Write the C-alpha cells for this entry.
Amino acid sequence: MGRRLFKELERSYGFDEVAIVPGQVTINPELTSTKMTIGDLEFEIPIMASAMDGAVSPRFAARMHEMGGLAVLNGEGLYSRYDDPYTVLEDIIATPQEEVTEFLQQVYTEPVKEDLLAAQVHEIKKSGAVCAVSFTPQTTKRMSPAAVEAGADIVVVQSTVTTARHVSNSYRGLIFSELIETIKVPVVVGNCVSYDVALELMETGIDGVLVGVGPGAACTTREVVGVGVPQVSATLECAAARQDYFRKTGRYVSVITDGGIRTGGDICKSIVSGADGVMLGTPFAQAEEAPGRGFNWGMANPHPELPRGTRVKVGTKAPLKQILYGPTSRTDGTQNFVGALKAGMGMCGAYTIRDLHKAEMVIAPAIKTEGKFFQMGG
C-alpha cells in the first residue's frame, strides 16, 4: 500500500521566493503611469497607508494625499475615542514593552464616539484630501453612515479574516450589498487570501479587496493562531478571481496587497502577482510625519482575550516624501518606492499597472542571496 496523507499540501510563495523576469521591450521610467483606481476615484500612485493608529492620523492622511496616495484612518482608533488622542499616543509610546499590550487593551476599551469620528473626517476633508475610514465588520453598520455623512469618500471594512458569509450569535452578519446601497461610496473589504472568498466578496458589489492574513510586522496572527498564506500566492489567487469576475460582469474590482511589504521590490512583485495597489503600515510608521513617532501596533492588538498584534519599535527613518520618492542613499529598497516601481515597470516594458500584471515571474528562492556574499556580510 502506497504512502497516504490526511491532507495534500500546496506550495505557496512569499516575496523572497520569486523574481520578476525582464520584458522583451524596455521603456524609460518617466513614460510609465502608476495610477490606481478604487471605484470612480483615481490616485497618482498605487500605494495606501494602512489604518493603524501609529501610522495614520488626520494630519498624515493629508500629507499622503499630497504625495498622490491614500491613507486610511482607523475609524475605531484613538482619534474617534478620545478628545485628545495625541496625549494617549504619547502614553502608549512611553509605556514599557512588558506592560504595553495590557495598556493597549485598556486604552481601547474607551467607546468609539460618532462626533469625534466626524470631527476627524472633517479635518481630513478640510485639507482637500480624499478621506478613507476603516471599520471592523461588527461596527460598520453603525459607524460608517456617520463617517460618510461627515464626508468620508471610501469605507474600508477590515478584519484579520473576512468572508461574505460570516456566522455570529452576537450580531446579524454584515451584508455588503445592503451596506453599499446604504452609504453609496466605494467599499473596500478585507482581508482574504483565496480565490473563492475573493470572488464571493466581489459578487456582493464591493470596489476593492484587501489581500493578506498575518504578514504585517506588527501582526502576530500567524504565531498566535497559525493562520495565513504567503502574499505572492494569496495575491495570485485573488487576482484570478478579479479577472474571472471582470470577464463575467465587465466590472473591475481593485485588488490591494496588504501587509508584509518592506521594499520597492516587494511592491513590484505584488503588482506582477496581479495587485492593483498595495497597503503599507510599518514603512509609513517610520516616516517623520507618523503619529507613532517610530512605534507601530496592529489593529487587532486591543482584543481583550487574545491580542493578535504587538507594539513594535520601527524607528523614524525619513520624511514621507523621501520614503515614497527619494532621493535616497539606502541600497536596501526601503526608500523611493515610487522610483523603484517606475524602474521595474520600465524593465518590464509596462506603461501602466495593468501592463505590469502581464510580466512573467519565476520561482527563485536564491534571488536575494545569489552573488551577494559581500552585501550579506555587511
Q: What stands out?
A: The chain has a mean pLDDT of 90. Residues 160 and 203 are 20 Å apart (CA to CA). The two ends are 52 Å apart (CA to CA). The domain at 43-316 is CATH 3.20.20.70 (TIM Barrel).
